[in-house]
Sequence to fold (674 residues):
Amino acid sequence: MRFLFKTDYEDDIRLFPHSGYVVSYGILLALLLIAPYVLSSYLMSQLVFVCIYATVGVALMILTGFTGQASLGHAAFLAIGAYTAAYLQKYNVPFPVYFLAAGVLTGCIGALVGFPALRLQGIYLVIATISFAFIVEEILARWESVTNGNEGMRVKTLSLLGVTVPRDSPTFYFLCLAVLVLTIVGTLNLLRSPTGRAFVAIRDSETAARSMGINVALYKVKSFAISAAITGLAGVLFAHKLSFISPEMFTLQLSIEFIIVILIGGSFSLHGAVLGAIFIVMIDPFLTYLKDDMPGIIAGIAATFGAGPATAGNIQSKVAAFASLNGLKGAIYGIIIVLFVLFEPLGLYGRWLKIKLFFQLFPLYKRATFKRQKIYVKSERNR
Amino acid sequence: MLDFVQQLVSGVALGCVYGLIALGFVLVYKATEVVNFAQGDLMMLGGFFAFTFIGMMGLNYWIGFAGAVAAMALFGMLAERVVVRPILGYPQFSIIMATIGLGYFLRSVAGMVWGTDDFKIDTPFSQGVLRIGSLVLAYDKLSVIAATIILCTLLYLFFNKTTLGTAMRASSENMLAAYYMGIPVKRVVSVVWAISAAVATCAGVLLAPITFIHSNVGLVLGLKAFPAAVLGGFGSIPGAVVGGVLIGVIESMAGFYLAEGWKDVAPYIVLLAVLLLKPEGLFGLHVRKKV
Fold:
């Protein structure tokens, strides 16, 4: 086990606490860089979605995980980013310009949403962000001169510095990866700056933060703006990846998926945002696998345990019928959310920390290390 | 003028349904400070239960109705026991997520069991209209209004006049203090969920002739019930119904007088305005924190 002795402030805010981090992240990055030459095109496409979802996850983590402002309206920010890109593209604006424009515009709108949010707490904030998302969805569907209404908009192939980048090329993947890595590094730096510390202070206790002299209103708006801006940038990539956007892609369902990303990944950690994104994107390939291969495998297992070919075939067809049920994905989502909230509120990253700690402290591990405390909050109405 | 009254009445009827769903939110919120995002889905499930009893098994309407209410009350207790009780006392965000997950699950399972078609229940009020002059009022809409008034009165009396109701209000104010005073908080919460699921079922069955039953109806209507609950002030029973009626009337008026598209957003615009100007809602208590 490695002991980290922190002797001054610099040790506390270092990006990489020790050399192990550099090595493991270096290996991970190298693997990600050779991925397009190894993986199948389907998996590559999923990997691009992982990058985009993880970027949104990091953005949402800044807002929900670190500032404590729940939002169920992030699909709207994604939509604004995507539509800005599609609209500016019609006037032959170059990629870097509309990429940044999308970020700035969503950032401004995020700040505007942040102002009403100042007076709202907990559940009221969630409801307000949901209504914001509905209004944006409706505007996208009705403002036909700009958004083309329900017919949706085509998004042309990305062209960067005169080179076209098709949406399934390795270059596009590298672009998404670069955006993700830059977002993560930027967020890490943000979090060790005074702004980030103020965010965490507001999350932990607004009253305490205010009495420390933190301008709570300013930082809440800032947090909204930053989170929205990053989501807008991800929206541009999302639009290019899909190559066609329409209002019904940016529904409450998508916002909930983003919340699931940070919930399953684990609140309060950027690792969690990435793990959650991997999880949510990989549900689809998993379901395909369940549909195509699982029945055969289960029938094979049944056959080895002495079931006759007729019984095995019967089992196979039953499993196949179950796996191709219509609402299976939704049911799996539901069960997973409930199970994570009940049993692993720290998410996948929390699970990893527990495993790591178990091996580090091997004979001395105590389960109570990660015990949650019930707080039995008094009525929120009296706050 | 006639159009206006006609729109007003159908708006009130629709609003009563929102109010009934919002009533479910409010009950659970009042007693446990939990916001149940699966309320609309409980309503949907109640509608499907009633459809199974009445439409498929051919029971009498009232027996089927009662059966569905009883089954859903049990289901509400089960959901509380399995999903909500282990996380009571944790931050609200976990509970919101858990109920969203529950809603997802119910919606998908209902889709698997009953299919994705629209269903309808034949009610004693399905046919027939009441004519007052040249005003035409359908019985099914009037039945919704009447049922809402009855349920609302019963619940109001229950909360304010009975011991159990008082216990519920106490445990909502401060769960720990209620424990210390000997209130069986766990059982209270269980009963609250049963009542709220039963109210949701009433909404589902009454709604069946108006919007039909399908697996997504809960999501759509549940999200419309939020503005209703917030408008009335989360935690006020009359507020939920008044909020629901207001939302229903606003929606129906916006659909009639304004351009297309306003109908769906008008409730949310009103909601945002209310949250900005009067976050505690029309009937909400404004309690100052004592330091």
Observations:
- Chain A touches chain B through 50 residues (CB under 8 Å).
- The radius of gyration of chain A is 23 Å.
